[in-house]
Amino acid sequence: MKTKIFIDGSEGTTGLRIYERFEGRDDIELLSISNELRKDAAERKKIINESDITFLCLPDAAAKESVSLVENDKVRIIDTSTAHRTDSGWAYGFPELSTEHRNAIKTGKRIAVPGCHATGFISLVYPIISGGILPADYPISAFSLTGYSGGGKKMIAEYEAENRNADIDAPREYALTQQHKHLKEMKAITGLSKEPLFSPIVADYYSGMVVSVPLYTQYLNSHKNPEEMTKYFMEYYKGEQFIRVVENGNEDLYGGMLSGNTLSGWDGLKVYITGNEERMVLSAQFDNLGKGASGAAVQCLNILMGCEENKGLVL
Known about the structure:
Blueprint: E1 3-8, H1 13-21, E2 28-31, H2 41-50, E3 53-56, H3 60-68, E4 76-79, E5 91-92, H4 99-107, E6 110-112, H5 116-130, E7 141-147, H6 152-160, E8 172-173, H7 183-190, E9 197-203, E10 209-216, H8 226-236, E11 243-245, E12 269-275, E13 279-286, H9 290-305
Parallel strand pairs: 1-2, 1-3, 3-4, 4-6, 5-6, 7-9, 11-12
Antiparallel strand pairs: 7-10, 8-9, 10-13, 12-13
Helix pairs in contact: 1-9, 4-9, 5-7
């Protein structure tokens, strides 16, 4: 029997990418809604409750409304918005973090897909806090380089316009008020005592990102050089097909530099540990539309369905 899937918000960037990943799959039945009724609450309610699993690819307020429409107890929700990522009763959709995270997704009825910046940050910080290497009260900072697709349809149109503003020819730092919407989950999921200082940068390329966390080794409890930290991360993510820890630092990088677009189109994430015995940088490189959005959502779906975790994904 095929699993009935509905994508609420299939016209957005994430919804479209999820839809594309279902091409050729014979284990699901996609439920559709006509364009003129896609914002009609009654029609959406009808289809959501006919589905086995509904993806929410909507703004936060609309995602909360869609959850309120669920009446069929068998319906499972995978929400790609920011709305429920730190709510109790919602599984956080990052299975590689721990056995508990994967089991919560497998058995859950409400799954919140991580944010793209948060994915990179949490992939680096969760393991070293849970392992007692980094104190929870460390005054942590991070920066993130991302392609413009992360800003959704409006930003994509701005960057691809024929007569665009000259300011966007160069990388641009944003969220200057330190109020980025991913900060809440970055703190809550990792167990940090305070939100990190976070500087995201958007640049003139379509997709892909690098999130980096610099650390002073003198404040770490252990694993105080890149080699030791690399071995720790390799053991932590051992057997995880979506996360690859680069063993030889930056030797394989073009020009010795981490590029934001290298993994565009790939659904995994690479971890790099670089630096020296005084200062170290932990970096996560991935596609903001892959492991940072629709790829992670489909991975969660596969876990719910009990099929191959990488089905329909590119690794």
